[in-house]
Amino acid sequence: MGRGIIRKFLRIESSGTLTNKEILKLIQTKKLVIEPLLEKSQIGEISIDLRVGTDFLTLHQGRQAYIDTSQDVIKKRSIKSHFTETRRRVGESFLLHPNQPILFSTLEYIKLPDDVYAVLTLRSSYSRLGLTISTIIQPGYCGCASIEIVNSGNTPIKILSGSRLVQARLVRLDEKSNYFKTHRKYTCQVRPVPSKANEDEELIKLLKIKENNK
Amino acid sequence: MNHKTIELQLLQLEESFSKSRSNIYSDNKKETHFSELHELFSAIKKSDYKNFTQAELDSHNQILNYIFTGLEFLDNSTLNVIPYEIVSCLEFALDDWVDSSNFIIVTSLSNRKGDFFFQSDNREYFENQNIEIGTRYNLKITYRLIQIVLPKVLSRDYLSIVVLYHELGHFVDLELNITSKIFYSKYGYKLSYLYTQLELMDYNHSMEYFADLFAAQYINNASNLYINYIAHNAPDSYTHPSSVKRINLVNDFLNGKTRTEVTELNTALVQGGCEQIKIRYEHIKIQNSDFQILVPQKIKNIAELHYIFKLGWEFWETSETNFLRKLNPRQKYHVINNLIEKSISNYIVKLRWEEVS
Amino acid sequence: MYLAQLSSLQTQAPFYINSLESIIHGNNTPESKEKIDSAISEAIDIAKGQKNIYSVDNNHYFFITTLLANYRERLIQVEKDNFGMVLYVDILKIFK
Questions:
Q1: Within-domain flag for B164
Q2: Hey, which of A86-90, B341-345, C36-40, C79-83 has the most confident mean pLDDT?
Q3: Which end of chain B is least crowded, N or C, by CB within 10 Å?
């Protein structure tokens, strides 16, 4: 409690989940950006409802039996080609077939402060249908959040572009991070992006180790 | 041409209809158009075409070709990856000049990098066709189709897509017959082979100037910036004025300088009861832009919406010194295009949301 | 980069030919005759210098400009109140 009083006195914000008041203050001071925010009611007591965007990636079976994430040579087709792009306008529906992974992005473009990250989950009414998501948005992130969703039920589920599918809980860290300092693969994305695992520097290292072992 | 031609066309159309993707149009207007095309086809099939006069055969040949083209447009339209953002902007611009609710815009993505164009039927043709099918079959076609073709690889490149505003300018010109009227006014009414090459070249140049000015109303000089990239220092040709002339005309227009080309066009427009060429964008200051903090631009109105492309160009041209300077070229390109796309999308979504609230 | 107009001016001629033939054979609808007559009147006004091309009805643009290119001298002599059959026959020849 003493620490809390000292923090308040020195105006140091405490870490932990952000409340409605804190969220609104960050939006007002443009440290947190959520655009478009179609309804104020999207901002709840400790979470923000986010909507399904207009762009979808459907994983489809390519000619290869598996997706090779170990190399990104032009000869091997890139991960992007395993996904089919589809667009919808707000209000139009998209069908989630059982066991077919889909990537979508939030309708909202989000900019997080350098010391806040977001945990994205499904709103409860949807998770009961057998849909699952789990995503973390890094501090300082700029862009629409890319979310993978899988229908683990037996029946196709129809979702509408623009519907409030996702819930974001914002959490403040003790220290700031610097999003653009570390080499970031993602730049102000506004559509869902497939995994960029191929480009991961670590994979290059692993391949080198494999070479050296010979 | 005899009735066998009509018979063959009918059989080919039968095939086209059966293969058509008629059941997945999410757009009411497209569905209506498809039904109307089919109804017209059925009516012609049942008609006594074997006893048509030559003129009736000719007109029905045109009508059947029209149906073919309509089906082709609807079928080739990119249902799943429509570039809504640019189409919305073009629809707003079109609406300033004609009633865009009478049109269906479909887009088609081409495999060729230079393919930016519009295709549509002519207004007079459409009206006359409706009179004919109204009289004969008590039918009519409600909407006119416009097909916008753009290169697949550039469908999310908002720096190059600005060219479509220029193409829209050509469409509006042909719709209102503006440069054609000026041509007749200058050179008189003659049989086409009696005009000189110089006179026809003047006509071609006039069309290009109109399209350039039309675009400039909305996107400032963004269209010229792109043209400069791909046709830098092009000289006068039979079809186009030199790049320098085009750039200078647009710059003079934007700076409010009087130019005879603009005056001439506006005289023709005003006397035809049409809108005038004038500035239709609202400036967004680059220093105050939301792009600087890596978020989409909050757009206040349609005039600002059109300016977003020019804003994107300004950031691109100064990307070595502005907030993008630390990013590599690929990232810069993606950031600018993504932010433009999302700025447009946010504006449209909010507009539609408010309309139904 | 170009604008492709699908229907060239040639494709419109058949419709006008049909309308004119109906008028000549006396089996036209009142509306179609009205439209043709109005277009001919406009062409006459322009030929006589009483109207300029800019305000012409765009729904008859091809018709009017074709008449002007082929028939201007004759149009100047036509009286607007009464178009004789000869006029329609002559115009039909132009479009054929």
A1: no
A2: B341-345
A3: C
Task: Note whether B158 and B340 are within 8 A (CB).
Answer: yes
- Which of B131, B144, B108 minimizes the C-alpha distance to B36? B144
Which range of residues forms the domain containing residue B78?
3-154
ipTM of the complex in this document:
0.89
* Chain B residue numbers touching C53 (CB-CB < 8 A): 181, 184-185
C-beta atoms of B334 and A87 within 8 A: no
For residue B77, give the nearest of B33, B124, B12 by alpha carbon: B33
Verify whether the Cβ–Cβ distance B80 to A143 is below 8 Å.
Answer: no
Phi, psi angles (nearest 5°) of residue C24: -65, -35
Q: DSSP character for B299?
A: P
Determine the longest span between alpha carbons in chain C, in angstroms. 47
Compute the CA torsion angle B282, A106, B107, B170 (nearest 10 deg): 10
- Whether residues B193 and B261 fall in one domain: yes
* Euclidean distance between CA atoms A44 and A21, whole angstroms: 10
- Asked if residue B335 and residue B307 are part of one domain, the reply reads yes
Q: What number of CA atoms fall less than 13 Å from residue B320's CA on the CB side?
A: 1
Nearest-by-Cβ selection for C68 from B170, B189, B267: B189
Is B160 contained in some domain? Answer: no
Cβ neighbours of A92 in B, within 8 Å: 26
Token pair, residue B274, equals 């049409």
- The answer to whether residues B132 and B57 belong to one domain is yes
Query: Are A32 and A85 within 8 A, CB to CB?
Result: no
Helices (H), chain A: 2-9, 20-28, 124-127, 201-213
**Total number of domains constituting chain A:** 1
Asked if residue A3 is part of any domain, the answer here is: no
Range name among A112-121, A202-211, B47-56, B103-112 with the lowest pLDDT average: A202-211
Given a contact as 3+ CB pairs under 8 Å, which chains touch B?
Answer: A, C
Q: What would the pLDDT profile of A12-34 be if each residue is shown by its tens digit?
A: 556 789 999 999 999 999 999 99
Are residue B192 and residue B131 in the same domain, yes or no?
Answer: no
C82: left (phi over 0), alpha (psi -120 to 50) or beta: beta
Nearest to B171 among C3, C13, C52 (CB): C3
Buried b vs exposed e over B97-132: b needs ≥16 C-beta within 10 Å?
bbebeebbbbbbbbeeeebbbbbbbbbbbbbbbebb
The pLDDT tens digits for B141-170 are 999 999 999 998 899 999 998 999 999 999
How confident is the model at residue A150, as a pLDDT? 85
